[in-house]
Design goal:
Number of strands: 12
Radius of gyration: 28 Å
Largest sheet: 4 strands, antiparallel
Number of helices: 12
Low-confidence stretches: none
Helix content: 25-40%
Distance between the termini: 55 Å
Strand content: 15-25%
Length: about 375
């Protein structure tokens, strides 16, 4: 029964349209590469971001709103073709649900058009971005003067910029900005307080197949007209961000920020080892300080546990050393022996024991109990 429903053209079209709309709105890398984005499709009208940053994003958010508001109507016309038996071409003969859907689908772009016409009045002075920028204008000035300052600083090559097109973070000498699908957040550096509020660790980044830590930082301004906003960035870019900022970043969440690839890998290394088999310390044997740092007791033992895994057969060797290293030092040793140009191979690699040189992999590292 389910298979029969899936074979119906309207069901297939519905699923395909949902996927298309999701990808078109949130623009994954594949859509960006193919040029299926609002910025690319309307590049002729939008102009150059480098020449007029603020004006570009006023136009971009406007056309984005209009295009997205038409998407529901596009589904209706698509269903007219995919399901001719529903008589959707003649709205008055369709059932009540489709008539309601059509009414809403037509109302959305009409409402958006009226809103855009309102924004465009006073030479786009009513646009939300213009108003947000105007909050930084001097008493005898206007949002256009602030816009000119932002445009000038954006053209400089020493700005900090990171993130996907729908969530870019840009920091210049004077401004901290976040580009979103429908808006542009702007805050002046001299007025802001920055706070690290969250951190998420991902074992693999979809772009580079390497561990990644994503930090969330709140930007709050003392200017009451500027609403706080969050920026997200890779922890490896944290140092570059701090160099560009005039204000310190407060770490309210006490997050340990990993600014190097080795730091990120160390967390992944520890998480993998924690799920490995536990090594029970024989009676009469006492743990000694780690010979790597001499700060904590050694708490790891190398046991060949991957002999049944075809991927590692014949590669790893049995280590007969007593526990001599802590997990942190062993993880740093493991990372230091890797090919720095190919971090995607680190998790599956083998390195020699720092004491006896017997080869081991992450599966062979056991915590001592």
């Amino acid at each position: 029964m389910l298979q029969g429903n899936m074979d119906r053209p309207e069901v297939t079209f519905t699923l395909a349209y949902i996927v298309f709309v999701f990808c078109f709105v949130f623009t994954p890398t594949e859509f960006i590469s193919a040029g299926v984005t609002v910025q690319n499709l309307f590049s002729g009208w939008l102009g150059s971001e480098d020449l007029g940053f603020v004006q570009y994003h006023i136009k971009r958010t406007t056309v984005t709103l209009l295009v997205h508001s038409i998407l529901p109507l596009g589904y209706y016309f698509g269903m007219c073709i995919a399901a001719p038996d529903k008589n959707l071409w003649y709205v008055h003969s369709a059932n009540d649900i489709w008539q309601l859907y059509f009414t809403i689908s037509v109302a959305l772009p009409l409402f958006s058009l009226v809103l855009v016409l309102h924004w465009s009045r006073n030479k786009w002075g009513n646009h939300p971005i213009s108003k947000s920028i105007g909050a930084h204008a001097l008493p005898q000035s206007s949002w256009r003067a602030v816009s000119s300052s932002i445009n000038t600083e954006f053209r400089r090559i020493d700005k900090f910029a990171t993130g996907a097109p729908g969530a870019r973070v840009i920091v210049t000498d004077t401004w901290v900005m976040k580009v979103t699908t429908y808006y542009l957040h702007v805050a002046q550096q001299q007025d802001i307080h920055l706070t690290v509020i969250d951190s998420k660790q991902h074992e693999l980044s979809p772009d580079s197949n390497t561990p990644v830590q994503i930090l969330t930082i709140t930007v709050a301004s003392i200017n009451p007209s500027v609403k706080p906003f969050d920026i997200r960035l890779n922890s490896t870019e944290y140092g570059e961000l701090r160099e560009k900022l005039h204000a310190p970043i407060r770490n309210a969440a006490n997050v340990v920020i990993h600014q190097t690839l080795s730091d990120l890998f160390l967390e992944t290394f520890k998480s993998h080892v924690e799920v490995n088999q536990i090594y029970s310390l024989p009676s009469g044997l006492e743990l000694e300080p780690c010979i790597g740092c001499m700060q904590v007791c050694s708490n790891t033992k190398l046991l060949r546990l991957c002999q049944d895994d075809g991927q590692y057969e014949g590669e790893c060797q049995q280590c007969y050393c007593r526990p001599m290293w802590c997990l942190t030092c062993l993880g740093k040793w493991f990372a230091s022996r890797q090919d720095q140009q190919h971090p995607e191979t680190w998790l599956a690699s083998r390195v020699p024991c720092p004491t006896c040189r017997a080869k081991f992999c992450i599966l062979d590292v056991c915590l001592v109990q």
